[in-house]
Amino acid sequence: MANKIKIKKINSILYLDTRNYILFSTNYSKHEFLYYKHLENDIKALFFGENLQNVLPEILKSQRSEYIEIYLDKYIQGGISYNEGDIVESNLSKSIANQIIIKLKKKISDNLASIEFF
Fold first, then answer.
1. For 101-116, what is each residue's pLDDT tens digit?
2. Of 38, 53, 85, 104, which has the fewest CB atoms closer than 10 Å, so is most exposed?
3. What is the pTM of this model?
């Protein structure tokens, strides 16, 4: 399965205060993926949903919070999150998420050391 997953496009990379965000698409799903990593705490997530590329700019314009993921709940259809030892999986297994992360790291040449496995 890992060899079949491909990152089609990196739509955007955002650096907001203590978090890095990467929005991208794959051949694995029709949905867009959003990876984020908190740079000071042991928190990371890989979410997927529809229309994220169009929604993110609106959220960035209208919200003052650096935590844009809290405004995405109605657009998120699944994912995996890790928060200081606790993992929550919803419609995306840890195994598939890590396979996607492998491909993401290769696609952007792992320039962001903050991209981590689950």
1. 999 998 887 565 678 9
2. 85
3. 0.89
